[in-house]
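Why this split exists: single-chain examples teach little about how molecules sit against one another. For that reason, every record in the complexes split bundles all components of an assembly together and asks for one structure covering all of them. Below is a record exactly as it appears in the raw files.
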Amino acid sequence: MTTTLSAILILGAIGFALAAILFLVSKRFAVYEDPRIDQVEQSLPGANCGGCGFPGCRNFAEACVKGDLSTLRCPVGGNDTMKTVATILGREAVESAPKVAVLLCNGACDKRPKTNQYNGATSCSIEALTYAGDTACQYGCLGQGECADACTFDALHMDPLTGLPVVDEAVCTACGACVKACPRGLFELRLKGDEAKRVYVACKNKDKGAVARKACNVACIACSKCQQACQFDAITITDNLAYINDEACTVCGTCVSVCPTGSILSTFTIESAQA
Amino acid sequence: MKTSALRMKTFKIGGIHPPDYKLTAQHPIHTTRLPETAVVLLNQHLGALAQPLVGKGDQVKVGQLIAKANGFISANIHAPVSGKVVKVEPVADVTGYAQPAIHIAVEGDEWLESIDRSDDLITTCDLEPKAIVDRIFEAGIVGLGGACFPTHVKLSPPPGKQASCIIVNAVECEPYLTTDHRLLLEKGEEIVVGLCLAMKATNAPTGYIGIEANKKDAILYLQSISKKYPGIQVVPLQMKYPQGGEKQLIDAITGCRVPSGKLPIDVGAIVLNASTTFAIYEAVQKKKPLIERVLTVTGEALTQPGNYRVRIGSPMSMLAEEAGGVPENTAKLVAGGPMMGKALSSLNSPVTKGSGGLLMLASENAVRKPSRQCIRCGKCITACPMGLEPHLFMTLAEFEAWDQLEKAHIMDCIECGCCTFSCPSNRPLLDYLRIGKTTVGRLRKTRQQA
Amino acid sequence: MKQTPIVAMSPHLHSGDSVEKKMYRVLLALLPAFGVSLFVFGWGTLITTLVAVTACVLFEYLIQRFVLKLPTTVTDGSAALTGLLLAFNLPSNLPIWIIVIGALFAIGLVKQTFGGLGNNPFNPAIAARVFLLVSFPAQMTTWPQPMQRSYLDALTGATPLEALKYHGHDLPNLNDLLLGTTGGSLGEIGALALLLGGAYLLLRKVITWHVPVSILGTVFLFTFLLGWLNPTSYHAVVSTNAVTNGLTFAVFHLLSGGLLLGALFMATDYVTSPMTTKGQLIYGVGIGAITVIIRIFGSYPEGVSFAILIMNALTPLINHYVKPTRFSPGRS
C-alpha cells in the first residue's frame, strides 16, 4: 500500500514540477503572433506552390496581414479566396480577372520538321543550352517536358502525338511555375476570358517571314494581315511577331480567319469565318 | 628523345587517357579553295559583338577591317575574302542560334597592299612592347584554342601584375586534332618568333613551349630551333587529357596552381595557343590580320582527311567537300575536338576564328548509351582534374539546389568532360554541370547587381 | 550521310566502361576461389552457389518486373554477383531454404527497397549473411571439414579462427591457409586464390588499392602489436621470441576467416564504400580495427562482416565530410 502511495506521490510531484516549469517558460518566452495570420492561412489553398511569389502559404498570409492587399494575390484561390482574406482582415477585396497559362507554340511534329536528333539529357534547359533545338526554329518548344515537371497541380501534360505540352485549363491555377520553367519563355498567363474564349498568337518566332515559314508551317510570318483586320487595335507587331493584347481583344475571331499560316489560335469555333 | 616518360612533367590531379586517333598527323597543311560566299560572324570572340563598318553593296579587299572591336574586351574583324558585301543579316552559328554576320560574295582574291604575303621569315622586330600589343589588337587576334578570348587583353596585364613567363600551348590533348602539330612542324620557327614577340610585349623573361609526348618529331624540331633563342625552353609533357587546359598546363610546366576564381596572370603566367602564337607572328611581322586558320578535317571513314588552311567565313560544308564529302555512316558532326567540341546540327554554319576542326563520327561512336543510376564508383571524382565531385553536382542540379552547387565550387569546373567520359553508368554529368554553372553564374550576376 | 545529324553536348567520346563490365570482371575474379572451394567442399559448394545465384537473379527479376514495375536490370550482373558473394559467405552444407531466405533478404530488403543498384546503403550479400547468422546461429556456425566433398552429411569441424579463439590447438598451418584446405565458409578459404582474383581486379582497375591495403594493413599492425605485447592471452604462443609471436599471430589473422574475401571483394563494393581515396582509407582503417576488436575482444570468432556493415553505415558521413583535394583552394 505504501509503495503504491509513494509511487503515486513521487510521479505526481515530478509531473507537477515539470508542468510548473512548462507553464513558466511558456509565459516568459511567449511570442505574440497576430491570430489573423492563422485565420488567413487556413483560408488559403495550402498547396505551397509559390505562385504568389512567396515560398509558402504561411509567408503569403503574413504578407497579407502586414501589407497592402492590392499588390498581393493568390493565383490558385483566385477572387473567392482573396475576398475571404479581405473579410478576415476587414479590408476591401481587389478583384482581378482569372488567368490561365497558354502555350505560345503550335509547332507540332507534323508542322515543324525535325532537322536533327537531340541525344542529350532529357531537360529543356540543357537542350536550350546545347543548341537551337532539333528543328530549324530556335524559338519553339523543345518538348522535353520541363514545364509538365514544374507544374504542381498536374495541369500540364506532354502530348506524345504533337510533342507539345497541353494545358488542362480546368485545373490550371495560373501560378506561373511553367512560365518560369520554360527556357524558351513559351508560356504566358492570359486572361481566361468569358466562357473561356481566347484568341492568341501561338508563336514566338522572331525570324523574318520566309525563314520562319521554312522552319515551321504554322509560324507567324509577320504579314500584318491580322493587324489590319483587327478593328480594336488589339494586335501589335514587334520583331517580326504579332501579339494580341488580351485586354483589348474582343474575341471576334476576325484575325483567326485572315491568318495565312494558322498561327493564331482560338479556344472556340468561329462561326462566320468568311464574314 | 632522352627524357624518359617517367620524368616528363604533367599535371597532378585527375585526368584521363582517351584514345589518340591522330589520323592526320602526317598530312601537311593544304590550302583550300575560296568559298563562293564568306559569312563572317560578328561574335567570333568572347566579349562585346564587333560593330560592322560596311554595309550592303560595299566592295572589300582581303584584310580590310569590316567590323571594329566594341570596347576593350572585343576584337576587330577583317574581310577574309575580297568581293562585295551582299547583306548584313543573322545566320546560325555552330550552336544553331542566329547571330549577326556580314555576307561577302567572293570576287577574285585582292589583298590589301600593306600585307606582306611572302613566306620569308622575319626574326627581328624593333617595335615597342605597347606597339606590339596594338598590332595584335588591330589584327583582331583571339585565342584560337577554342575559347576565343581576345589576345591583346591577355597581353595587357592589369596594373601591378607582371608576367614571369609565357607558355605556348602546343599540347593538343584533344583526340583527332592535329593542327597545332602540323603548324609546329611547318611553321616552327615562326611560332618561336611569335613567342619572342609576346615575351617582349609583356616583358616576360621566360617562354615555355609545352608539347605532349605523342608529337616527338615536333619536340625534337622545336628543341633544335629554340637553342637560337635565349630564354625559350621546350617542355615535353606526358600524354594526359586535359593537359591543354590553361590551369592544368601551368601546373604541369611551372608547378604553380592558379587559385580558384583567379586568372593565370595571378601566378605570373600567360598561356597562348600555338596557332595564336603563329597569328601573332603574322600580325606583327607581316601585318596580316587574322583572316584564315588551320582546321583538321577528320573521321575514320573520310576519304581525304587532312589539315586544311581555310579562310574564315567559309561554310563547313565546303571543308567537308574538300575532304572528300561526308561519309555515309556519319551520324555526328563535331566542330572542334571530340572532348570539348560542339555537335553541329547542319554543315551550313561558317568557319570562325575559334573552329579547331571538323570531326565526323560514325554512328557507333555518336549515340549515347542510356543513362543509368549512379553506382557511386567515384570514377568521376578520380578523373576530375579540378578535384570536384561531378556525381554530386549532377544530383544537385537535377534538384535545382543552386546555392549548394555554388558552395561545392561548381564554378571551378572547366567543362573538360573527363567525368562523362569515365562514367560507367553513362550519366550525362557534364550536361547537368553546365546547366548548374550557367545558372549559378546568372544568380551571381544578379546578386552583384543588387 | 544517311540520317539527320545527332546533337548532344560534349564530350562526344566515352571510355566504353560500363556497369556490366565491372560486375562481370568481379565475377571472373572470384572464379579461382570458387575452384578451390569446389575442390575442398565438393557438392556443397556447387549446390549452395547455384541456389544462391539463381535465387538472387530470380528475385531481382521478379521484384523489378512485378512489384516495382520497372525495367529489369538483371543483365547488369549485380544480382548474380550478390548471389555469388552471398554463397561465398555461407557454410557449404547450409540447407537450401535458408539460402533462399538469405537471397530474398539481400535482394528484396537490402537492395530493391532502397531503389536498386546504387542506392543500397549496405552491401546486400553481407547484410544477408549477418541476418542469417543471427537468425540461424546453429546452421550458420557448423562448417563441414575440408576435403569431405559431400553436401548435408559431411562431418563438421571448427574454423581456424574458432580454434584460435577457443582453445589454441589444432591450428591449421600456413600451407593450409594459403591453399584452402581448412574449414570455413564456402569462399573464404584459399588465400592464394583470393589474392589472385584481387590482383586481377587491381590490374583491370576495377578496384584501387586503397580499401584492401588499408584494411589488411590495419589488421596486420593491430594483431602484430597484440601478439607481440601480450602473447599468452590469445592462445598463440609459438616461440619464445615476442616478435616472431607477433608476426605469426598477424599472418594467421590476415589469412584466416573472411578477411581477404571481405577486403578484396566486399568492402570494395562501389555502392557502399566512400568515393574519395581519402575516405576509402578512413573506411579501410575502420573496417580493419573493428574486425580485430571483434575477433579478439568480442564474443564472435569472426568480425569482418560486422565491421563492413558498420563502416557501410558510416559511408554517407565519410562522403559528406571527406572531400577530394581541390585543384586550388579559395573562393570559386
